[in-house]
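Question: what's this shape?

___
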Amino acid sequence: MLFVCLTLVDWVMAQIFPSSSPSPSPSLPSSTCTSTSTSTSSSFSANDEDVWFAGVEGGGTSWRVAVARGVPTNIVDSAKFDTEDPDTTLTKISEWLSKHKYNALGIATFGPIEPKLGKAMFGYITSTPKEHWDYTNVVGRLVNDSNKHIPFLFDTDVNAPAMAEYDHFGKAKGHSSCAYITVGTGVGVGLIINGLPVHGLLHPEGGHLLLQCDILEGNSTFEGTCRFHKNCVEGLVSAPALAKLAGVHKDNLSSVLDTHPVWDHAADVLASLCSTLLLLVSPERIVLSGGVMLRNGLLQKIHEKTLKKLNKYINNKTLLDRPEDIIQLSHWRDNSGIIGALVLAKYALDNKQGSG
């Protein structure tokens, strides 16, 4: 049994009202980026057009920043930056934010991170596999003298969209849980249990689980690509790993045919991950996202292999008859990460209003 010994109020309050202010950001040079405006419908309850949310999504390949009006899905302006060195990237993000008005900020980045206030490394990306980003003070760079009065939350780039998926879809169905898996440059797993994002000792790092999986035939010597664990989930099914198995450059993975056996390998690894999550934390919904999940037919293969691995041990009619109702693609696809960051901002602001 997994227990989350934290109330939502405690969790949000602890991060909105830190015991000490983060370090201010240095002076900002000019920067350029591509900015877009989009607007999508939303069923989020609060809709005050005078309320603005800002969200920052930090990924291994790119960072995104956006502002939304009224509800987190009503994005009215956004920008995308390549992930360069920390100073260059965070300076560009901070400068973009300084040109926009907002009432609350949500920051969601790749990990591992330290999400708990009171810890010496709160607000940092810590022992990350991403080169040059070890022990980077993200919150200290983005929450500074100009916006330190703004409520904010900081979490992983998988816990945040997991919360968005749960908040947008799960609550209406009476759910209390959701798992979110992203499969791209890396593999991440976010978890909502009893309506709360899981932190615990650190936070979920399910992409680095060591599972029993079949290696693509003819590649028995393949050790995996993770620099920490070699053949963990990320080392076997991330885009770089799949490209290496398919014998192509990672930038050419999209050219690999749907019929290539590497996709059966990918489905097997991801089915092992889904089976493990279903057995260990029993989420009512598993959401998959990321560039690898754009592959035609991959989700259906994951359904089939997950049921085969479980072998009817979980005797749930929905899972057995309609696995697509439980294991699904993200509703927001490529926007799930930034919407997750904006949902963090909404939770920060809602708590401030409720505690006033």
Notes: The two ends are 35 Å apart (CA to CA). The longest strand covers residues 62-69.
